[in-house]
Amino acid sequence: MTMFRAALILGLLSAVGPFAIDMYLPAMPAIAEGLNADVTSVQLTLTAYFVAFGVAQLFYGPWADQAGRKTPLYLGLGIFILGSVGSALAGSIGELIAFRAIQGLGGAVLMVVPRAIIRDMHTGTQATKLMAMVMLVISVSPMLAPLAGSGLIAFGDWRLIFWVLCVAAMASLLLTATVLPETLAPENRVPVNLANLWRGTKVLFRDPVFMGLTFIGGFGFASFMVFIASASFVYTGQFGLSPTGFSVAFAINAIGFFAASQAAGPLGEKFGILPVMRLAVIGFATFSVLLLVILLAGFVSLPIVIAGLFFANACLGLVIPTTMVMALDPHGAIAGLASSLGGTLQMVTGGAMVVLAGLFFDGTAVPMVAAIVLCALFALVLALRTLAIMDRAAKAAVQP
Q1: How far apart are CA 154 and CA 359, in angstroms?
Q2: Count of alpha carbons within 13 Å of 246, Cβ hemisphere only?
Q3: How confident is the model at residue 244 (pLDDT cuts 50, 70, 90)?
Q4: pTM, entire model
Q5: What element of type H or E holds 2?
Q6: How far apart are CA 138 and CA 391, in angstroms?
Q7: Phi, psi for residue 324 in degrees, rounded to 5
Q8: pLDDT in tens, 120-179
Q9: How many CB atoms lie within 10 A of CB 264?
Q10: How far is residue 10's CA from residue 120's CA, in Å, rounded to a whole number?
């Protein structure tokens, strides 16, 4: 299978999960009104999805190492369909939170398995290239999904969005059954038992590079989760945008991330992965802090917020795909476990940051950006420490 075809298939599968997030963002104020819920409760529908999404990865990864990559996809997509139907029929905010968690339990498979498939096929810069190509396909989500969601609520109510997600998951099942090849040969499969899981988990937890890279990407992703959970209320409430206007503003912020992610592979080949990631994390922290300072100085406007987040997210686009690949590279024998553990830690980190930010969120841009800055500073501290360890290891490896 060519790299382009692999990227297209894996990207389409991987995009279902982000669509479950991005498509309903314009409808969050309408959900609050329709279910008579407050902002914090509506944000919990995202937190429930992310936390369930993260925890379920611990199950799918080891199972994918034992059973191959396709069987877990079938089950996960089936669970996702169940959660989508339940969300569409929810009669209260509590029911919606519960069914969004079920959606997350199923959607987690679309994070773990495609990443493990990429590791099956490639390593190093080739894997970074494929990961970036997959993310290019996924990039239609933040650009088109909110617009699609605002279009759907113009013709119906917010429940229609979940029916569309149900249809998308059914199409993914068909794609998995008919087009996606099995990439894990039977002789390379690892039996799932507590001894193997505990042995592999200890290896990963004791690896400071794996843990450091995981949390660098985790805090980077957490900043994006904070933005996702808050942006619809900030852009429509504080700045008065319509659902369609919010969708356009959200797409602009997301374009920076996904456009930069396409440069991760080429830049890594030309300048080295470590220098690129170091500069990208520094840039992410710098732009985030600069935006917060400008807002605290009283210069609060929609163009400033969009521009600041655009540049910060562009730096983030160089960080997340690179950390994913580098964390998995030394652990090919347990790629599924490593992918699932890393994904779980990242999602739980993101969910915790959304809850923390929600305690101080007042519907304006300053608390949202302050939480993003906190994520950026955590990522910067971890990056400086982890990359120093990797530099020392690289120098030791070339010495006679």
Answers
A1: 32
A2: 30
A3: confident
A4: 0.77
A5: none
A6: 32
A7: -60, -50
A8: 665 566 666 666 666 666 666 666 778 788 888 888 888 999 999 999 899 888 888 887
A9: 26
A10: 13
